[in-house]
Amino acid sequence: MISFVEQEPRLYGGSDGAIRYVQKRTIKILESGRCASSTRITAAEFKEIAWAITWEKWADEAAKQKDVKTIMDRILTNACAAINARCNMTIYLGVKDDGAITGILIENYDLVHTLNQILDEYLREPQSKAFRAKGKLKFSAEMRTAFSQCVGNIKAIPVDGTPPTTEGCYYVLEIDICPRYIFTRDLQFAFCTPEGRVVSYIRERSSNLPSTHDSFKDRNFKGLVQEGAVWRRDEDLKERLAELEREKKLVEENASKKDKKALKAYQEMIEAITAKLESGGDMSREELERVLSLDAIAAVREEAGATTSKLSKMKEWDVQAVLEITKAAFRTIVKDDLTSIATALQEEHKMIHK
Q1: The whole model's pTM is what?
Q2: Are 296 and 208 in the same domain?
Q3: Do 76 and 51 fall within a single domain?
Q4: Residues 172 and 269 in one domain
Q5: DSSP letter assigned to residue 20
Q6: pLDDT of 117-146, one tens digit each?
């Protein structure tokens, strides 16, 4: 029976500590696929798991592998479908098809960490089971890396209102999928089942359709993937363009008029993105990495770490000096806004002078 008491889900990309669910309530969204207006509107997939996860059960290797196989198959199938459709998605494990929250009984939170380690091994290890069939590697390193970059960690959301038990607590396990174009390009994604079959899916409405589905006799599966890739590329570029313009404005407000290099770098990248969006042409890997880089924060920290001696010599907080020290990082394009970066650097400066 569907509960008529609805509950807002965790925000896509949000932490698992900001929300708690209540058993038998219904998540205030429906199972869905790629939105007709944007690839960035999050699709949803619900999967109920009616059995408990305990250390005692997992002491039996066969029972553990059965659980792992089921959970990984549900994650990989939906991740593959969402990535091929180029749409954001959240997979909810512990939620019925109608959205009713049941949760999964998990003995100890350490088991969630173990599941994340297993998922990491499935996606990122050289001997990954997800990309090997009958012991042979079936996919390129580019595809394996791209797939792993699109799948987020498992987040465990506590479920209140569950029957008292000494066996553990109930959680909904959630996995965010984000197929950024910087990773996915125009690749068609697939994975290997535990039985050794190579399968590929695409998300259509609330279903995952395999590439062998009858509907693809009259349609081109690869063409649908490439169509979604172009759509995602343009949306990612438009989002980055808006971020660049905000960051450039912050630089203009805070930088000295003498420092023209950072502003010039922003302007060059804004013009490059605008030109590509207007022409509809593809971008080289170097161009994409320049304007869509996700490693910017790491680059800022590396640059700041390499210039600790410069920061230590600063008697007073000097915006101009910080801009000069981090100008190389500006050229890589930062993911967060400049305010957060300036705050982080200021905190480092304070620590040096304690």
Answers
A1: 0.77
A2: no
A3: yes
A4: no
A5: -
A6: 999 998 887 677 788 877 787 888 888 889
